[in-house]
Amino acid sequence: MRIALLLSAGLLCMSAQAASVDVASLDRGTWPEKLTSPALFDVGSRAEILMFAHSLLASETQDDAALKQRLGLKIINLAAINDLRRELWRRLLENYSVAQQSCEVDASFCYLVENMDDLREEAGKFEVSANSFYIDWAAPSHAFHERYLDELLRKAALFPQIGSEVARFGEHERNGDEFNDRLFLLTFDGGPAPVTGNTDWLADYLRKQKMNGIFFVLGSSLQTRLERSSAADVQALYQGQCVGTQGWQYRSHSHWVDWQSSITRSAALAQNLMPENYVPLFRPPYGQRRADSQGFFQSQGLQVALWDIDSQDEPGRLKAQESAQRVLTLMLLWRKGVIVFHDTQDKARVALPWLLQATAQSGLGWQDCREAF
């Protein structure tokens, strides 16, 4: 019976990973203003918050059958979906309350919102008029937020059988929700890439920008990189950066018999090789980890590092520019948090410079990786 349950759980994981879901991206060229000041960042933020809230509110009118059809699932965890909705509304209200503080500078998308009822009311009647300065943005933004909401709801519908970044299993898990407004953390998954590859470029680029991020390494890739270069070369590669772990292999750690060994082995390698760069953080591949793993992580002195802004830069997903524009849209929506790229992909080499240039005058900040969690 136990073997059968494990097999069915594994098949569910694989089907969830392989399922075809439209990935949301928004052409920022439809937005008519550059983010050349903190106030203009707030204008864009208020607009994205209201558009997402409009989609979220509309989704609450759908019954179980309609939700299953919408998400392409036969079984859904409605309690987890409702938990997610409550958390999303909490963040939207918090973010809009901060974003409206600059309404005296620019009143675009400013409405009197003092509590949750106000926000829900404004979301329900939110509409961009045909003669609005922002009309070219309205329809593409609505399509983006419908698809993005589907991404989130689908993950909640599968929770906790399939863990993901949309919900936490305990206080040992972090996702950047405690960051200050306009503060973002850069993270990179799946590396290191082969010698002189994308990891080298990204780490060097960040140093030139006097910035840093957390590189979540795979133990097997780190071991291979070490064997093909040297300890000194690997240490130089991550100079000034932080290094966490994703386990020994990039695979789900929720139903893998050797998941504990995967984590401890890779963490020991990274810590022994780069004690000054190592941070005791585990980034679960696909966001999948066991619901009952808190005791293990606490015994190892580790925290689980999740994220809330996914670039979707994996192979077969978004192109580099689409990935960058998705990230910027989600930065406007969530106003703080953890951004994830993959340093084995070359898309971040295009997306990250574009992102920094687009936000250079918007008043946001980048979280120091050593002080993130």
UniProtKB/TrEMBL annotation:
Hydrolase found in the keyword field: yes
Record domain NodB homology: where: 179-303
Entries under Pfam families matching the protein: Polysacc_deac_1
Signal peptide: 1-18
Entry keyword annotation includes Membrane: no
InterPro entries: Glyco_hydro/deAcase_b/a-brl, NODB_dom, Polysacc_deacetylase_ArnD
Alphabetically ordered keywords of this record: Hydrolase, Metal-binding, Signal
Superkingdom: Bacteria
Protein name in the entry: Polysaccharide deacetylase family protein
Source species of the chain: Pseudomonas quebecensis
Lineage of source species: Bacteria, Pseudomonadati, Pseudomonadota, Gammaproteobacteria, Pseudomonadales
